[in-house]
Specification:
The structure is a single chain. With 258 residues, this protein is an alpha/beta fold. It contains nine helices and 13 strands. Strands 3-4-2-1-5-6-7-13 form an eight-stranded mixed beta sheet, with helices on both faces. A five-stranded mixed beta sheet has the order 9-10-8-11-12. Strand 1, helix 1 and strand 2 form a beta-alpha-beta unit. 42% of the residues are buried. Bound molecules: nicotinamide-adenine-dinucleotide (NAD).
Length: 258
């Protein structure tokens, strides 16, 4: 299997390249960086960095994308045109980006997950289950911490945990999400799902879902020790794609946890 890496000079791109090189039965098809990047033409971890994503999609059986939402949208178009499988780890995706992935998924296998680790995908299932079992007299708050370079908040994983909690409760997250509290906010709205984000150091990704009732509290926590767990998950997803029909899948599908 030939795997291409878009954003190959990024923090995750380099991790994915290392994971591909360490995995039997797969081969690096090449990598790209943002047009105009200083990395174009250089050799990084054995990849000659290019800027022509179209050529990379034609040379690859599957492409792994940890970039930025605008780039992911372009990559989705190329995946659809070439019937090339696409693994998307990029976070901060909005409706227009998701629509592009859905369109690509008519012609190609697309796996999109805000968090590619096995543990977090288990946590998503547990969160949905606990939220479904408890009444809304248990307040749900989601706390996340990431390294100082992260640009989006709350993290994509925190939002996915919020979606899982909302699904467990049978409500729409958009109606109950509370992402900012500052100043005189008044008391908590019953049924809200709250989010808080911390940033600092080199934290790979900590997430806690808190169910706070009167007199007791349940906390479900996952801590990623380093970013290689995400790269491993992305390569696992790539290896899973050849047996699938075109469609938009999640990491829970890949792991058989859906
Ligand atoms: P980063 O900034 O280190 O890397 C992103 C790379 O993409 C950069 O090198 C950038 O130049 C490149 N890029 C931008 N536009 C491009 C284009 N048009 N073509 C090719 N390359 C392009 O960021 P990072 O820490 O590696 O994270 C990347 C994304 O992955 C973020 O959205 C982050 O939140 C997400 N992420 C997801 C998971 C997961 O498990 N799903 C885990 C970690 C990070």
């Amino acid at each position: 299997m030939k795997i291409g890496i878009v954003g190959c000079a990024g923090r995750m791109g380099r991790m994915v390249a290392a994971e591909v090189l360490a995995t039997d039965g797969v081969e690096l098809a090449g990598g790209t960086e943002a047009p105009g990047s200083d990395f174009i033409g250089r050799d990084i971890d054995g990849i000659k960095v290019g800027d022509d994503a179209g050529t990379l999609f034609r040379a690859s059986g599957v492409v792994i994308d940890f970039t930025v939402p605008a780039a992911t949208m372009v990559h989705a178009g190329l995946a659809g045109e070439n019937g090339c499988a696409l693994i998307v780890g990029t976070t901060g995706l909005e409706a227009e980006h998701m629509a592009a992935l859905e369109k690509a998924a008519e012609k190609a296998v697309v796996v999109q997950a805000a968090n590619m680790s096995v543990g977090v995908n288990l946590l998503l299932g547990l969160t949905e289950q606990v939220a479904g079992a408890l009444g809304d007299d248990y307040d749900i708050e989601i706390l996340e911490m990431h390294h100082r370079h992260k640009v989006d908040a709350p993290s994509g994983t925190a939002l996915a945990l919020g979606q899982a909690a909302a699904a467990g409760r049978g409500v729409d997250l958009n109606q109950v999400s509370q992402t900012a509290r500052d100043g005189n906010t008044g008391p908590r709205n019953p049924g809200d799902i709250g989010f808080a984000s911390l940033r600092g150091g080199d934290v790979a990704g900590d997430h806690t879902v808190i169910f706070a009732g009167d007199g007791e509290r349940i906390e479900l926590t996952h801590k990623a020790g380093n970013r290689s767990v995400f790269a491993r998950g992305a390569v696992l997803a790539a290896l899973w794609t050849p047996r699938q029909k075109p469609g938009l899948y999640s990491m829970r599908d890949v792991l058989g946890l859906a």
